[in-house]
Amino acid sequence: MASASSFCLLLVVALADSGTSTRRTLRSWVNWGCDEPCPERNVTAVYLRADGPNDTLHYLWDFVGAPSVLLAVTPPSAWLNISWDDYLARRENSVYFSEKPTYTFGVIISKIIEFNDVNDTALIDTADVKNTNVLRTEYFNWRRVSLSQKSELVNLDMEGNSYHDTANISRYGSVKLSLQGFCTLDHSDMVPHMLHTENSTLVDIILDHMQTNETFSKSRFAIELLAVGGGNPEVPMFVDPKKSLDDEHTPGIFEVVEVRTPPYNNLDGTLNAGSYLQWRPVSYSNALREITSSTETIQYPPKQVFNHTSIIRNSMLYCYYGEATDNLLMQKIMVSLGSKGDGYYKKSSYLTWTFMIGYGTPPEERFSSLVIMIISIGLGLPLLIMVATGLYLCVRRVPKRHGNVYLSR
Ligand SMILES: *[C@@H]1O[C@H](CO)[C@@H](O)[C@H](O)[C@H]1NC(C)=O
Ligand SMILES: *[C@@H]1O[C@H](CO)[C@@H](O)[C@H](O)[C@H]1NC(C)=O
Ligand SMILES: *[C@@H]1O[C@H](CO)[C@@H](O)[C@H](O)[C@H]1NC(C)=O
Ligand SMILES: *[C@@H]1O[C@H](CO)[C@@H](O)[C@H](O)[C@H]1NC(C)=O
Ligand SMILES: *[C@@H]1O[C@H](CO)[C@@H](O)[C@H](O)[C@H]1NC(C)=O
Ligand SMILES: *[C@@H]1O[C@H](CO)[C@@H](O)[C@H](O)[C@H]1NC(C)=O
Ligand SMILES: *[C@@H]1O[C@H](CO)[C@@H](O)[C@H](O)[C@H]1NC(C)=O
Ligand SMILES: *[C@@H]1O[C@H](CO)[C@@H](O)[C@H](O)[C@H]1NC(C)=O
Known about the structure:
Blueprint: H1 2-20, E1 25-30, H2 37-41, E2 45-51, E3 56-62, E4 68-74, E5 80-82, H3 84-88, E6 95-97, E7 103-116, E8 132-136, E9 141-149, E10 153-161, E11 163-164, E12 170-171, E13 174-182, E14 186-187, E15 195-196, E16 200-208, E17 219-229, E18 238-243, E19 255-260, E20 264-265, E21 271-272, E22 275-279, E23 282-284, E24 294-299, E25 303-304, H4 308-312, H5 316-321, E26 329-337, E27 350-359, H6 369-408
Antiparallel strand pairs: 1-2, 2-3, 3-4, 4-7, 5-6, 7-8, 7-17, 9-10, 10-13, 11-12, 13-16, 14-15, 16-27, 17-26, 18-19, 19-22, 20-21, 22-27, 23-24, 24-26, 25-26
Helix pairs in contact: 1-6
This protein binds 2-acetamido-2-deoxy-beta-D-glucopyranose (8 copies).
């Protein structure tokens, strides 16, 4: 009986699960509307649109400069348009929409920072300037490795090599960056199997055999993001580490870190949730991504940025926002890879970081049907045994009394 009711609960949960998820139609293009200059310059900018019943989410993934992602919410009839000559020259307003978006948000993966962790604290904020080297991602040579464009999943793999910056600093080693767009609520295939919605993009970064500074004996790396978008610029974003229910999808990791932008005012005055970044605080040190070969990531309070426009000048976000960036919300988010006592970057020369960029409310991990079934069996089976034993005892007693009666006759 108890099992039966657990089973019903399971059914209800399964039904509720399928009821709440909405689906979007994905379509994507490489170098949308670009005829001549793109093949010549070998650039990659992927335009992805996810059409829902009442609105469309547009994404632009750009590797012309520093890797960046723009997200915009518009009515379904709106289209993105790029003036390519201006776009490649990084001029403002070279990206625009045929109808004004109700909301936009952009992220630049702007810097990879190497620091010499002399006291093995794994904290970048204790390292001073002379123990820190900044690599700006626009100085890597970005190459398209693969692109798969399906109606339910769009996946772009890029690789950045041969770092060479304006100060003549060169590095070997590669940064592998994958971006994924989705049409519905699910877990991603790749460990750490992040839960994504129809409104989110997955970003996976691998630092593969990056050359470290030979004067640093205890190198670690950190990644700095720049987030720009709608919402009140006076309200700081905040980082919120949360305990999660179970580690079924990301073995050994019971925490989810979330950064949310302040809510924004819709045209009709209603308050809408803005965007979020979300990740599991784990970094894997080989391609198998097992928990035994992993270390932690550490996040820091987001930092305010001055001179908004000049800081994004060479990126795709400048092409869209232009000088208007000064009045927008903008913050730096930093995450360092590694934890105290893990042997530093040189131990594996391979570290990963995976995060989601999403619009709306971040999805919450729920108990899966499997876990619910295990709990049901765990609770239901003992109850069933107790009830069965009880019944058996009752049944056995009854004939005994009959027997006594029979004997006493
Ligand atoms: C789309 O709009 C219709 C009518 O306004 C509404 O009933 C429906 O719930 C909306 N769908 C979604 C997914 O928001
Ligand atoms: C972009 O806009 C220009 C001028 O407004 C137009 O000629 C062009 O066809 C548009 N391109 C796309 C891909 O919509
Ligand atoms: C490392 O530890 C030494 C000794 O405790 C201290 O003097 C120094 O400031 C520390 N350096 C950093 C970068 O934390
Ligand atoms: C190594 O670090 C030192 C001190 O920060 C810096 O002057 C030098 O340019 C760095 N070398 C490389 C190759 O990054
Ligand atoms: C463009 O990229 C492809 C593959 O990424 C490469 O094979 C080719 O040599 C590149 N062409 C130029 C002109 O850089
Ligand atoms: C970088 O190296 C090139 C060639 O070696 C040299 O011509 C140039 O002046 C150097 N630039 C800087 C900023 O040191
Ligand atoms: C902003 O940029 C201007 C000119 O480039 C510079 O003079 C000023 O010091 C900068 N302000 C900050 C806070 O960095
Ligand atoms: C996804 O975006 C749509 C459209 O704005 C919104 O109505 C919906 O609540 C979002 N979904 C989630 C899970 O936040």
